[in-house]
């Protein structure tokens, strides 16, 4: 039977329930687990082996165990009881419905860390099928949004209203609900009355950045992985507008996107490819950009790409929503109204860069240097 093998169980283990999709969640969980280990804690991880599939229990130094959603729930529960001293819920959306109730079933203290809006929205991003911000519509309006959404049987098998009821029960039982921004705290209070989140920024404030070694160009730098809700279409359309109007500006994505070829095809957007952990600041500095841009069109709960741009010494432009908008407002960056047309975005960015000279082709650094 799963769970009958391996080393003896040790009381006081911390179970981190998360997903297996990488990105900012994985970055946070990995760093946090390292901190817990440094404090003498033993961390186990529970991840879905696939979206809605078996749960995979990872224990230090041991072969992972998998538990089938239909037949393995009782075995997993039995293994965890008596071993786990507390739980951290980082992500439940991609777990099979039977496993989503584990934090309540185990009967140990748990806290919930909000990495996105999957406890409110089956899509996790509060965006419509076309990628635009939904404005946090009520469950009734959500029905048409998620109609035909392929992930519903796992993300919200009983519908949006039931998802929010279940989430409210989870959050109210939690010892602590952690958010990284005041914007996130406001959204939690609005949708889950009686829940008082605790503010814990994901990162320490970086030291003041070193001044750029060379005069910047009128170049806009975007960092990270761009999907639709992360602003892929915003960047593509801004680059296309710059080309169509022959504006003295260009863009570079330090990272990758859902369609790098489409960005490059504008003639005004270069794509470097994904950078390794810890090297983003150096890659951004190498582009000699004048402004960093977060084109994300959903209310982020945090944004590591924004931290990379800030650490590289760039003023940042972002839409005025979510954690990204909150941070831009606090830093004196460029707050853009959500939905601003690409041409108007470019006009505002260009005005901020007035007087900077465009580089010649020979001056531009190779993208993979």
Automatic annotation (TrEMBL):
The name this protein goes by in its record? Glycosyltransferase
Source species = Sabulicella glaciei
């Amino acid at each position: 039977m799963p769970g009958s093998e391996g080393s003896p169980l040790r009381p006081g283990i911390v179970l981190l329930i998360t997903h297996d999709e990488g990105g900012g969640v994985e970055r946070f969980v990995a760093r946090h687990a390292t901190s817990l280990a440094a404090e003498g804690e033993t961390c186990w991880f529970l991840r879905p082996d696939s979206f809605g599939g078996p749960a995979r229990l990872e224990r230090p130094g041991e072969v992972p165990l998998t538990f089938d959603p239909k037949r393995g729930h009782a075995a997993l529960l039995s293994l965890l009881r008596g071993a786990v001293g507390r739980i951290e819920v980082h992500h439940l959306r991609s777990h099979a419905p039977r496993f989503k109730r584990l934090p309540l079933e185990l009967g140990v203290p748990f806290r919930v860390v909000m990495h996105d809006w999957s406890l409110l929205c089956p899509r996790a991003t509060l965006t419509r099928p076309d990628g635009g911000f939904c404005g946090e519509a009520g469950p009734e309006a959500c029905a048409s949004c998620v109609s035909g959404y392929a992930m519903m049987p796992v993300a919200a098998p009983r519908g949006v209203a039931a998802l929010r009821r279940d989430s409210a029960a989870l959050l109210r039982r939690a010892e602590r609900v952690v958010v990284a921004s005041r914007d996130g705290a406001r959204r939690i209070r609005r949708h889950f009355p009686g829940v008082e989140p605790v503010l814990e920024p994901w990162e320490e404030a970086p030291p003041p950045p070193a001044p750029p070694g060379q005069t910047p160009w009128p170049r806009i730098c975007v960092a990270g992985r761009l999907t639709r809700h992360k602003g892929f279409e915003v960047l593509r359309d801004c680059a296309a507008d710059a080309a169509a109007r022959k504006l003295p500006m260009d863009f570079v994505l330090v990272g990758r996107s859902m369609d790098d070829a489409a960005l490059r095809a504008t003639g005004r957007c270069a794509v470097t490819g994904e950078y390794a952990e810890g090297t983003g600041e150096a890659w951004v500095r190498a582009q000699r950009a004048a402004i960093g841009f977060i084109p994300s069109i959903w209310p982020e709960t945090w944004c590591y790409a924004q931290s990379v741009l800030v650490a590289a010494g760039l003023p940042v432009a972002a839409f005025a929503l979510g954690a990204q908008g909150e941070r831009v407002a606090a830093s004196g960056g460029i707050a853009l109204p959500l939905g601003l047309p690409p041409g108007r975005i470019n006009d505002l960015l260009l005005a901020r860069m007035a007087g900077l000279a465009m580089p010649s082709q020979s001056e531009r650094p190779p993208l993979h240097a």
